[in-house]
Design a protein that fits this description.
single chain; alpha+beta; 9-stranded mixed β-sheet; 3-stranded mixed β-sheet
C-alpha cells in the first residue's frame, strides 16, 4: 500500500510540473497588422495575402533562456497583414500555467527556410521582436492574446524588413580601382 501511495504522489507531482499555459498566436485586430518595409523607413505596405511568410516564437520562464516552439504559422491567405489562424488557435506551453513567461517573436520569408537565413540573404524579409513578458492562464481556460495594444506585455504590429543587396568588398575594391584608373588616365592627358 505504501508503494502505491508513493507512486501516486510522484505521478501527481510530475504532472503538476508539466502544467499547460495557453496563448493565442493570431493578430486578429486590424490595428495590429504586419507590414513589409523595403528600406527600413516609413515606406511600407501591408503584408499581402500572396507570398509566403512564416512566424514563430520562443518562450521560457527566464528571458535569458528561451526555447523554440515547433509550431510555425504563415500569413493569412484571405486578409492582408494577418497571421493565419482564428481567435481560437492556441498553443500549449510546457510551462506551468499562471507563471510569468517570456516570449520573442520571429518572422521571415518562408523561401529562406529560417529566420537566420532570411536576415542575411539579400531580397528576403525578416523581423525579430524585443522580449516581452506575459502570464498565460493555465488550461483549460482560453489563452491570452499575444497581439494587442499593451506595450511590453503584448506584441504590436511590426514591419518585416527587406535584407538589402550589399555588394561584396571585392566588387567595391574593383570599382574603386577602375575609377582610379580612369582618373589617372584623364589626368595624364
Amino acid at each position: 500500500m505504501k508503494i502505491k501511495v508513493t507512486l501516486f504522489a510522484l505521478a501527481v507531482s510530475a504532472l503538476s510540473v508539466l502544467g499547460q499555459g495557453q496563448v493565442v498566436f493570431q493578430n486578429s485586430s486590424i490595428s495590429q497588422p504586419v507590414f513589409l518595409n523595403n528600406d527600413g523607413s516609413g515606406n511600407r505596405v501591408i503584408m499581402p495575402t500572396s507570398g509566403a511568410f512564416s512566424f514563430y516564437f520562443t518562450y521560457g520562464t527566464s528571458s535569458a533562456n528561451l526555447n523554440f516552439t515547433s509550431s510555425v504559422f504563415t500569413n493569412s491567405a484571405s486578409t492582408a497583414g494577418r497571421i493565419a489562424g482564428s481567435g481560437s488557435s492556441s498553443i500549449s506551453l510546457s510551462t506551468v500555467g499562471d507563471v510569468a513567461t517570456f516570449f520573442r517573436l520571429y518572422a521571415y520569408s518562408t523561401s529562406a527556410t529560417d529566420y537566420l537565413t532570411a536576415s542575411t540573404t539579400p531580397g528576403k524579409y525578416s523581423y525579430v521582436s524585443s522580449i516581452i513578458s506575459m502570464t498565460p492562464p493555465g488550461s483549460p481556460t482560453p489563452g491570452i492574446a499575444m497581439f494587442g495594444p499593451t506595450v511590453g506585455s503584448q506584441f504590436q504590429g511590426f514591419d518585416l524588413i527587406l535584407t538589402p543587396n550589399v555588394p561584396e568588398p571585392s566588387t567595391i575594391a574593383l570599382g574603386a580601382l577602375g575609377i582610379g584608373s580612369l582618373l589617372f588616365i584623364r589626368r595624364r592627358k
